[in-house]
Amino acid sequence: METTQVVQTLIDLSGKRENILDYTIGDSNLVLLETNDPEKVKLEELQESDAVVEAILRKQHLTLHLKDGLKDELSELLMVQEEAVEEEEQTVLQKVMNTIQGIFTPILTPLAGAGILQGITILLTTTGVLETGMAEEGILNTISDAVFYFMPILLAFSAAREFKASPYLAATIASFLLHPDLIFGLENFPGSDFFHIPIQSINYANSVIPIILIVWAQSYIERYLKKIMPEILAPVVNPVVILVVVSLLGLSILGPIGNFVGTGIASVLGYFTQTIPWLVPTLMGALSPFVIMGGVHYSLFPAATVSLSELGYETILSPGMLAANMAHAGVALAVALRTKKTAYRSYSISAAVTATMGVSQPALYGIELILKRPLIAAILGGGMGGLYAGIFNVRAFAFANPSLPALPVYLDSSSNIVHAIIMVLISFAAGFILTWVFGFEEPSDEVVDQATA
Predict the structure, then answer these.
(1) Measured at the alpha carbon of residue 345, what is the angle toward residues 339 and 346, in degrees to the nearest 5?
(2) In angstroms, rounded to a whole number, what is the distance separating the alpha carbons of residues 275 and 280?
(3) What distance in Å separates the CA atoms of residue 308 and residue 63, rounded to the nearest whole number?
(4) For the whole model, what pTM was predicted?
(5) Tens of pLDDT, residues 217-246
(6) Residues sharing a CB contact under 8 Å with residue 385, sequence separation 6 or more, in sequence order
(7) 317 in Cβ contact with 288 (< 8 Å)
(8) Which of 12, 46, 275, 344 has the fewest CB atoms within 10 Å, i.e. the most exposed one?
(9) Cα–Cα distance for residue pair 174/258, rounded to 1 Å
């Protein structure tokens, strides 16, 4: 019997994986299992097993002295099955949100850097430091635009890791979609086909949804090939099949589907921007605490990214989240000035500063959820700022962490940046004043110690 089968038998005799609450792998081939229901443990069969030297059950604690070579295998299998159980317990919505978070989180750093650089370039051009049309402006614009233009390649790499596919093959397929020869051919020869497979003329630069669908399909094709392809042929045949099949599948079916979905999202966002422009920023500003706690903001990245690529701006995340962060900063500063506890004052000042830098968790978890009434002030303050942003159609023209240093992403030829600054002032002032008016009960020394630890 193979080692894996032997170890699986031991787990089954212990009441199966769901009966094992915790485990400790010790020295000298000793394993301590904490069981949920000791009656499910088949102790006699464990003691008679050739893989077990000794098995002792005391209340919920099962101690196994294993034969050589089984301890590490047991530890690895328990860990794998633990992850599988946790995944099964997740709802479909949680799985989707976790997947979106896993895909977009790794690319936030280059997105933020490019967004801020884009805003700085606009600021330098507007103030006359850079001359429009000269090499300096062109190079800086190209640096910041490259991240968005080659977005499919970045997403391909992170999506492949999330879907457990080859990130390098995924990036190669994304590069194929952005290859100048392909773009030139599709633009100049519409209605082309590949051996009678119709191909639509679509430019995938800046796109988001098509490449995610393509890499998702790639992951299944890879797994299928691993099952059917002999090991001696796999290193040579699999990469070729994956590149050709997935590229053609993406070009003919999945790419157009993703493009249709992305265009549809952009149309809906454009409709709301034109008809009810105040709604989304107001909701984001007011509900930010709950959005952050639930991690829901990650699920909005695709829509915001599509809006940027299709419309050139977004009003979904940045304006409302910036208003919310400034409200958190105002709340934290008011608490800092009113609290009588020195340690908590220092913590609150720090939370106020970090909120203006785009990190609101210290204010949310260390102040608002503890003191209760300041949370109401943060909700109202963020909502007021978001409402102003919606009424005056404040737009972010690039991705950046919603913070004061990121204000340049609101620069354009109109007064958009002015309204963004007013939105910041409204949110901060409302959070500060409402916290001052509502007041709060001083936290206990124990709570202060926990918050400032």
Answers:
(1) 180
(2) 11
(3) 58
(4) 0.60
(5) 999 999 889 888 888 888 889 999 999 999
(6) 285, 322, 323, 324, 326, 327, 423, 424, 426, 427, 430
(7) no
(8) 275
(9) 14
